């Protein structure tokens, strides 16, 4: 008899625009990275799982079992992930989604999108105290998401015939520390935050116009503003410069900062490949290319 396995998958995400200014009421734009995935496998086990409620994965599995009123069925899990942790790519949200889907699959239970979103957000709240919900929303969506604090989420389609290169600096991001750093000097940072907000609005409009040049220029300007508020790092600045020197239309750090990834925009697959190779030569530990 073949062993029963529950399978759940989820994709990652990246922030295109709006880091930090989103905290001050401006829009943020996040993109699903549909080819960068997490898979969770649930199998039968000999003993019950021990739950660690500081761990998103544990919390997600516990939430799913609790929702299904399953208490005495020992299971084990395995995570196969292409998403690096703490890089602003939605690793914890993607792991939660995959795990919850796998539990429901293992127990042959239907799972609606609404139920899934509630359970994922429950796990994210326990693990991250006060998440915006943007990671979960984007990892659950096949479309880009725009988010404004106290207003909510909106999905929209992106069809640009452009390519986004994501490059990992290899350094863990420190979102909470970066947010606190920006807040500490809020008064002097406000002009930069207002500019970041304005640039996010420009990009949102440029996406509807399919204006790749404007998107690229705004990305590069946003990087300078993020540098000015002190949330970029030398390694990210270097990779941004490398991308721009190798014909990227625009480039910037992405996510909370003090580590994490940079993103670069180009309008051809060939150039995306060339930029990607150059970034790896110049210190990136991994790169991905996403068609927009």
Automatic annotation (TrEMBL):
<keyword id="KW-0460">Magnesium</keyword>
<keyword id="KW-0418">Kinase</keyword>
<keyword id="KW-0443">Lipid metabolism</keyword>
<dbReference type="GO" id="GO:0019287">
    <property type="term" value="P:isopentenyl diphosphate biosynthetic process, mevalonate pathway"/>
</dbReference>
<dbReference type="GO" id="GO:0005524">
    <property type="term" value="F:ATP binding"/>
</dbReference>
<keyword id="KW-0067">ATP-binding</keyword>
<keyword id="KW-0963">Cytoplasm</keyword>
<dbReference type="InterPro" id="IPR036554">
    <property type="entry name" value="GHMP_kinase_C_sf"/>
</dbReference>
<keyword id="KW-0547">Nucleotide-binding</keyword>
<dbReference type="InterPro" id="IPR006205">
    <property type="entry name" value="Mev_gal_kin"/>
</dbReference>
<dbReference type="GO" id="GO:0005829">
    <property type="term" value="C:cytosol"/>
</dbReference>
<protein>
    <submittedName>
        <fullName>Mevalonate kinase</fullName>
    </submittedName>
</protein>
<dbReference type="InterPro" id="IPR020568">
    <property type="entry name" value="Ribosomal_Su5_D2-typ_SF"/>
</dbReference>
<dbReference type="InterPro" id="IPR006204">
    <property type="entry name" value="GHMP_kinase_N_dom"/>
</dbReference>
<feature type="domain" description="GHMP kinase C-terminal">
    <location>
        <begin position="205"/>
        <end position="283"/>
    </location>
</feature>
<dbReference type="Pfam" id="PF00288">
    <property type="entry name" value="GHMP_kinases_N"/>
</dbReference>
<comment type="pathway">
    <text>Isoprenoid biosynthesis; isopentenyl diphosphate biosynthesis via mevalonate pathway; isopentenyl diphosphate from (R)-mevalonate: step 1/3.</text>
</comment>
<keyword id="KW-0808">Transferase</keyword>
<dbReference type="InterPro" id="IPR014721">
    <property type="entry name" value="Ribsml_uS5_D2-typ_fold_subgr"/>
</dbReference>
<dbReference type="Pfam" id="PF08544">
    <property type="entry name" value="GHMP_kinases_C"/>
</dbReference>
<dbReference type="GO" id="GO:0004496">
    <property type="term" value="F:mevalonate kinase activity"/>
</dbReference>
<dbReference type="InterPro" id="IPR013750">
    <property type="entry name" value="GHMP_kinase_C_dom"/>
</dbReference>
<feature type="domain" description="GHMP kinase N-terminal">
    <location>
        <begin position="62"/>
        <end position="139"/>
    </location>
</feature>
<keyword id="KW-0444">Lipid biosynthesis</keyword>
